[in-house]
Amino acid sequence: MDTLESSARTTSQDSTSESVLLPTEMVDYVVDFLHDDMDSLRSCTLVSKQWLPAGSFHLFHCIRWPPCDDQWTWCATHPDTHCKCHLLDDSGTLDGILSLLTTCTRISVNVRSLLIKMEWYGPGAATFSRVTTPQQLSSVLILIPKLVTLEIYSLQFSTTHSVASLPKGCSIQTLRLESLAVDVDFRSLSIFLSHFPSIQTLQVWSTTPLQPSDTAASTAQTLPVHVQDLDISILSRDRTWFDFLSANLDMAALTSLSHYHSSHQDTRTAEYEAYIAAAHGFLRNCSNLRVLKWRSIPTPELRSHPSVCPTLDEIHFTFSSQHIYHAYWNSIAEFLNSRIASAATTAVVDFTYVLLVYSDFEDWNFAAYQNVFREEFGSLDWAALNSAFARLQYLRMEVRLHFSKARLWGETSPSGDVNQRAGPGVWLEQVEECRAATETFIRSRLSMESHQKLELCVSFHVRH
């Protein structure tokens, strides 16, 4: 009896004095599987001090401000969503976040991605209102030393000094600028980019032209940014953007260019001709361009670019529509046969066919869809397409059937994606039949030579 009691006391002492430590690599491996499960990650941080770093890395990996993904009007009409709009009622909320980043380095050192909006359509507001000042943006960047990705919406510069306070030498590698305000001028944006010498990916989406700077300020030089991947969406068709990019980027470092432009513009104006001339000059300076991505129809003026790009190897075409428009598909053949694309060996065609469904498929005619698809897709100039595909070494076609404003008779996930494990109804089978029939029909239109280098993927997607 005494021996058993002694053994029990010894075992108890051993268990309390020592805890079992797993290899750090094993802890990281386990926690990585929970990267998108916030509740489980919080539990992991409470296991022991050893589990705290791995859990914190995923918990604080991304910060958003404002914290809500949707406009307040959507949240107000969808009470089932986890709305955080109420945080904006307190004007000091962002200052509270800054204070937390200052006092808790465990959070700040783990932040890798920051999405911040300067303006937001806040609760109860009739128009966009300012939710972030340039000074607050500067403070956030100073407090996050290991930030890799920065997304800024509605960037504003009323004066040059508003960007001069930004920290120099940020380690940011990906910078996305969307919905730039109308008061952003050439010089202010140049100064802003000079604070991020390490960026490799730059995305600029703008609906407005850059405002001109005064002559004295414009002559001041900034060091070029060595961007490798550039994504530009210039809806204004204004040459100032190409002038700005040519002056501020190291064109020899650029290897991938993604471009979107609006096709609804009068091509007979002098402004449009200046835009095309600037675009031609920009492409001519891309001496090491390897990948070119079109997220719209390449205009005839751009397809007729007189120069050959000898380093261009891969071309992507991404577009979506509710009908099979000949102009979209004809532009693919024409661009692949153009001089600028003569060295390309790979093409990727990513097409989303948007299908509107209003009554949970009850009244939707699957047979009618197949007839319309065969008629529209079959009327394309497949001889020209196959001729353009023939000179390629590799061709990938991704056709996505997007059922919009629809719901299958079965459960769906919160994001709207179909949960096929939830026992979907008979309509899922018919949608799959449409997908298979679409793939078979496309293959029947491609030549044998195109088939030999083809990777075809036809999928479907259903959202509310």
UniProtKB/TrEMBL annotation:
This is F-box domain-containing protein.
